[in-house]
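Cross-posted from the bioinformatics board.
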Amino acid sequence: MSMTTLVDVSLSDGQTAAWGGAASTAMMLGTMNALGQARLAAIEVLSPAVIAQCISRDENPLQRVAAFRERANGTPLRATVNLLPAHGHLDVLAGEALDTWLRLLAKAGISEVVLIDPLLDLSRLGNAVQKAQANGLTAIAALPYVDDPEHCDAYYSACAARLVLTGAQRIMLRDEAGLLHVDRLPGLLSALRSGVDGKPLDLHTRCHTGLGPQVALEAIRLGIDRLDAALPTVANGASTPSLALLIRSAALLELPLQNPDQDRIKEAQAQLAAVADQEGFTESQPWAFDLAPYEHQLPGEIAAEAMQALRLRGRLADLFEFSHECTRIRQELGHPPMLPPFAQAIARQALEHLDAAPRFATLQPALRRWLQGCYGPVDTSLLRLQQRIGAIANPGHPVSLPATEEALAAIVSGCRALPPLQKLHYEVRTPEQALTHGLLQRWPDYTVLSVTGPGLSIHLEHSKG
Amino acid sequence: MLNQLREKVNAEFARTGKRRRIQLVDATLRDAHQCLWATRMRTEHMLPMVERLDALGFDVIEGIALVQFDASVLFLNQSPLERLRLLSERVRHTPLRGVVRSNMLRSFFPEPDDLSELYVERLVANGARDIGFLDSLHCWDNLVPAISTAKRLGATTTLAMIYNLAPGYDAPFYAAKAREAIERFDIDAFTFGDAGGSMTVEQVRSIVPAIKAVIGDRPLEIITHCLNATGSLVALEAAVHGADRLLCSIDPLANGNAGPSAQMLARNLREIGFEVSFDDRAADEIGDYLAGVAEENGFPVGVPAEYDPAHFVTQYAGGAMSNLQSQLQLAGIADKLPVVLEEIGRIRVELGSPVMATPFPAMIAAQAVMNVLSGERYKVVPDEVKKYVCGYFGALPLPVDPDIKDRVLANGSREIAITPPVLAPRVPELRRRYPGLSDDELLLRAMYGDEKITGLVPTVVDDTFSVRRPLHELIAGLAKLPEQRHVHIAMAGFELRTR
C-alpha cells in the first residue's frame, strides 16, 4: 500500500478558520521557513479567503506567494482557486482572466492549484484544468462533499469519473463543513477509488463536529493519497486536523503515513504559537460534538463566524433554529451549494431572519445574483422575490475585462489595483522586549509606571522639568 | 449522520407508536467538578444554583459520592453530609443521588458490612432518594450490605456497570452481570459507564441493546466522558439504541475530561426526534453562574478535547486525569505526564486489565508514578496494588502477569497478608468510643479521624444566585468613567489610587 502524504494548510485555511485570517505575510515568514524544511507533500499558501484578507490589509497576495516560495526549499506551493469568486467583481472566473491569474500564480511560485467549481460545472472545470496545465501547474479537481440522501456513493463515484475526464492530475474530496464520519468513509472512498481510475485521491476535511482527526486517521488506513492538515495552533474547530496529532497517532496505530520532519514541524508550530502569543491570536480549540453542522452544512470559517454571531446574541440554544433557516433558504433559492460565494450569504440571511426581520426584507448580494441567474438558471420558489429584484439582461454575458495583466489580477483579487509590494519584516519579541514595548506604549498616559517581579524592578517617572 | 439518526428514531416511533422520552441526569454537582476542578466545588458554590437545577427538568441529580466526601473533608474542611442535607432541602422535585463505591469508604480499603450499611443509611437520612452502586470489578458480592440497606430504606437502587476495553468485556458479559443483579437484588435501574472516554459507537450499538434486552423496562443510564471527542456522539448513539437516560452536566462544566453538555444533548436529542423535558435557557443561566464561579476561583471550564486514539491505550478516567495532573504539578513533575500515561497503559495490561474506574485508575497511576520516579519497575509497590493482586477487592477480571505478581508480592508491604482477612464489624466499637454522637458524625469520624472532623467549618448558607466580584466590578466601573483620572478610595485594609 502506498503511503499517505501530508499537505500543510496552516497559512491558508488554518489561520483563516482560527484567526479570521488575521496573520499578515510578514508574520508567517518564520513559520514558512520551518515548514519549507519539513518535507511536506505541499504547502497551501493562497486561497480566495487569503486573497481577500491580503487586500483588506493592503498587502499584495502575489508578494505573499513569492515571499513564501523563497522559503519553501523546493516544497510545492499550492493555491485554491474558486471559479465563482465571492467578491462580486466577477461572477465567474474563466477565459482570459483565469488564464492570466493562473499564469501569475505560476510565475510567483505556485505549482499546484485546487480548482473548485461549487456548481461542479464540468465544462468550466475542464477548461480551468487545461489552462492550469498550460501554465505548468498541477491541476487538482475538487469534489465538494455534501451530506444528504441524494448524494450517495454512486453519485460521488460518477462525479469522480467525470472529473478524471477533465484531465485533472489529482482529485480532491473536499469536506469543507467537516461532515464526514467513519461510518461513511469506507464505502465512499471505495466508490471514489473506482471512479478515479488510478488517479491520486486527496482529502480535505474539517473538524466542526470534532470527528475530523478520526476521519483523517481512518482515511490514512484506507489509503488516501494526500491529506490536508494544519499546525496545532490553527487546527481543529472549523479548521483541519492537526499535523502533530496525525503524525503521533499514525505512529501509534501503525498507519501508512509518510512522516514529515517532526523537528521542523515542531519549529514551525513554535514560530506560529509565538506569533499568536505576540499578536493576541487565540490558539484554536476543538469544538464540542454537535449534529447542527449536518443541518446547516456551513464551511470552515463561515461556520465559525455564524457560531460567534449566535454566541454574541446569546442564542446558542437556537443553533438548530438557525440551521433550519439555512436549510429553508437553500431550498427556497433552489439549492445553491454551501460554498463561497453562497454559503456566507446564506448564513447572513439566516441570521437576519433569526433576528426577527421579515424574511427577505433585504437580500444578500450573492443570493440576489443567484436569483438573477448570473450562475445559471434557477428553480426557486421565491418567485415574488425574484420579480422584486428584477432580471439581468444577459446573465451569462462576460463582463468587459481590462487588457493589462496587472488590472486583470486586481479584478480577480477583488480590488481596483493590486496593492504595492511592501518591505516584509517581522520580529518575534522576547518577553523582556514585549514588556519594554508595552511599557513604552503606555508611558505617555502615566506619570509613574512601576513594575516589580522576581529579579526585576522597572520604575519610570517623568522628570519634573 | 443527522439523517441516519433521525431515521432510526422515526423507525422506532413508527414501530411503537410513541416518541420515546430521554431523561437527563445531572452530574454538575458530582462528576463534572470531579473531572474539571479536582472536586473542589464548595457547598457554597452549589447552594445558589441548586433550586434552579432542580427546576430544569433533570430526572435525577447526582449529589455526592466518595470522591466528594474525601475532597470535602480533606481539602475544603466541609462536611459532605451537611452538603447533602443542604442540597436535599433545596432539591424538592428531582431525586437526589448518593453513590456507593463497592464496600469501601475513605481510601480503597474494603470496610466491614456494618460500616457500608451505616454509610447508605446516612446518605438516605440526609436526603438521597436514589443510591448508585459501583463495583469496578463487577463483583456484586461486595455490594450486598449496601444494596440491602438501600432497599430496606426504600431508596431507588441504580447499579453501575463499567465499560472496559479488554477481552471478555463484551455485550454478553454485561448482559449476564445485569441479569445476575436483577435476580439477586431486583435492582431498579442500571448505569453503563465509560470512565475513560474510550467507548466507541460500534460498542454502544452492541452493548446497549444487549443490556436492555435483559433489564426490560428498568431504566438504563449511560455515562460517557469527552476525553476523546466522541463522548457526546456515543451518548446520542446510546439513546438511539435503547438507553433511557444520559448523564451530563451544565456547560461550561462539561466536555474535556467531563461528560457531555446538558444543553447540547437536550437540543440534539430533540432534533433527532426524541422527547426531552429540559429548560435550555435556564440551563444557560446556570452555565453563566458556573463560568463566574470558575473565573472567581481560578478553576478551568470544560474545553472540548481533540480526538486522540492514545486514549484507547490508557483508558484513563476523567476525574482521575484531573487529579493526576494536579498531583504531578504539585510534585513538580508535570512534565512527566506523557511518560506516566504510557506507563499506566502498560501496568494496566500487566495487572489483568481492570476497569479504569475508581479506585483502579488512581491505584495504577500511583504505581506508574513510582515506576517512573524510582527507575525500576515495581521496586516500590503501593499497598493498594498488593491488596488488589491478593484479591482484597474481589475476584480479578483477568489473571495478573505471573512475573509482575511475583514482583508485587516480593516488594509490597509485608504487613499485607496474602490471604485477605475477614473484616470484623466496626460500628459497635465506634458507638462505645463516641457515645452520644450523631450517626453522621460517627460515620465521618470513622472515615477521617477526629482531628479532621473536629476542624470542619459549617457552611455559610447564602442562596444568592450571583457571583460577587466587588473589586472587579469597582475597577471595571472606574475604567468606564470618562476623563476621571484621579480617584482615591480608602477603607479598612484596602486603598486604591488612580491617577
